[in-house]
Each structure stands twice: as structure tokens, then as C-alpha cells.
């Protein structure tokens, strides 16, 4: 059995990724860091991934609202209706 501190360490482990990009994009990354928008390249990419996830969530919500508006939904009366 692992201690709580050990489990916390396991969940905070990081993975290193190597990516390639055109020089023009690398320059934009450097400018964002230089202008103090981000403390590091890693912070910038973590924020970018979170923004993409948020954008996808908003798109899914908008699509669900459209489906509801045009009547493309199923009224759930019990948990069995989810199956």
C-alpha cells in the first residue's frame, strides 16, 4: 500500500514531449514567453491544450442546444432510458 505522499508524487509526475514546428511558429512561442505572457514553453502548451478542450466543450454544448431546438433529443423518464 502506498502512502498518501507517495500517491501524490505519482500523480504529479511529468512527461517530456519533443515537438517540431516551423521557425515562424517557434518565433511566436518565443515572443509570448519574452512578453511575459507565459513563464515557459511548457506553460504555454498546457494553456493551449486547455483552451482547445474548452473550445471543444463549447462546440459540443452549442451542438446539443441546436439538437434540442430542432427536436432531436430523447426524453428520459428513467435510468433505463440511458441504455
What does this structure look like?
It is built from 3 helices and no strands. It is an all-alpha fold. It has one domain. It is elongated. It starts with a helix and ends in a 14-residue tail after the last helix. The relative contact order is 0.05.
Please tell me what the overall shape is.
elongated
Taking all Cα atoms into account, the compactness measure Rg is: 21 Å
Terminus-to-terminus distance: 37 Å
Average predicted confidence as pLDDT: 88
Give a quick rundown of the structure:
The chain has 83 residues and is mostly helical.
Output the keywords.
3 helices, 83 residues, mainly alpha
Tell me the layout of helices and strands:
Layout: H1 4-11, H2 23-34, H3 41-69
